[in-house]
């Protein structure tokens, strides 16, 4: 802790507060993370005077050109200095009424300010005042909860969660991020108050959800969300993956638990949050495509197509970016079975070429996902799959080296077809262009300009087009 308190900015804050004849404390996540030895660059400062006035005084003392952003409506001010964000606010007391989401805020004491915090571990404060510099103020035994790895609300959990239901998501997020347990009393209160999540905006919910997705083992948070029955409130498609149906003694995998396994497998190999979203959504259409077919058993035919279609509506509802990130998720959901199909079939050059062509630069991610998708309780089966998977990988590399199909464009453009045969943009141009691409991918002709040009002339003749 000494190391943090020697931060020269804290000394300046202390001196500035003294000049303003007020008290000041560092509070919240930053203090928690000192004890957890986690790096944190968001420093919250609470004063018993005006946060704005103090911030301006500190900034002037630190550097004459430091810009302070002031949010008058919230009574807060912040600046960025030496890689950290410092936010200043006056201590406040919050009171909620059940008919409104927004609390009434009034000036309060340090105790009031600690009382309005979500968890005991987030309510710790350290004095920056001269006479008590460095003293910890821990009214709810937050330090002991850090030791015991417990998430617990400082006051009555029913009131805490009902006042601001986002705190239920935050409880799960902190548990997942820190590897803590939510105290059973606190957890029961989450279940009791779960419906209140409806008053929270989807943006705030997703902010927490994305933090859960970014943890090293996202299944921990997702299982808690499911257990608290929060998941079904904002992500019904995911909750619908749960359960196993049995007909004539034949069951299928529980898609929810399988999905979590795949997600963890991907998370162990990649920090790309959108690839993790692909894992989360790869089987999302299984419930809608599920059929029992005698004598084969369960089929989910076309779930990759329908799943890829569902991505847009899910992204829209969850206010996720509807841009190239979404298109990447759609594409990978659509392609997720392709390497597995190659395992089952005799691996032909043309199938490998097609996969390379369709996946383009995302081929490594497609392969990572497909590998992560191999989950089974049968170790021998998994081993065989992995071995065959390696063969597919080798083949991919061979074909890639030979044909360079990543980001490949067929050697003859639509423009050239139109010029050669004096055609206007038309169906025929598309037909010839597609035929050239198919012939190369199938391996019927060589991947070269000359071969493609000869093939174009033959194809055009077939269609009754001459030069
Ligand atoms: P992280 O930086 O990982 O998000 P954090 O605890 O610093 O963790 P912030 O959202 O920055 O999280 O919040 C800072 C502090 O503000 C928290 O430690 C907590 O004391 C308080 N806080 C934030 N959100 C709430 C809330 N919804 N209800 C009560 N207190 C909150």
How would you characterize this protein structure?
It is a single chain. The protein is α+β, with helices and mostly antiparallel strands. The protein has helices at 2-5, 8-19, 29-36, 51-62, 110-115, 142-148, 157-163, 166-178, 184-193, 202-213, 219-227, 231-234, 236-239, 255-269, 273-281, 286-289, 303-317, 324-335, 338-344, 349-359, 363-372, 379-403, 414-421, 427-442, 449-462, and strands spanning 24-27, 42-47, 69-71, 76-81, 84-90, 92-95, 104-107, 125-127, 136-137, 150-151, 181-182, 291-293, 297-299. The chain is built from 25 helices and 13 strands. Bound molecules: adenosine-5'-triphosphate (ATP). Adenosine-5'-triphosphate is lined by residues 28-29, 42, 44, 117-118, 122, 164, 166-167.
| Contiguous helical run count | 25
Give the ligands present.
Answer: adenosine-5'-triphosphate
| Coarse structural class | alpha+beta
Strand % is 5-15%
State the low-pLDDT regions, or none: none
Q: What's the total count of β strands?
A: 13
Q: Give the strand order, joined by hyphens, for the main sheet.
A: 3-4-5-2-1-8-9
What is the overall shape?
Answer: elongated
Ends: how far apart? 82 Å
What is the average per-residue confidence, as pLDDT, rounded to a whole number? 92
| Helicity, as a percent range | 40-55%
What is the CA-based Rg, rounded? 30 Å
Can you give me a brief rundown of this structure?
By secondary structure, the chain is of the alpha+beta class. It has 25 helices and 13 strands.
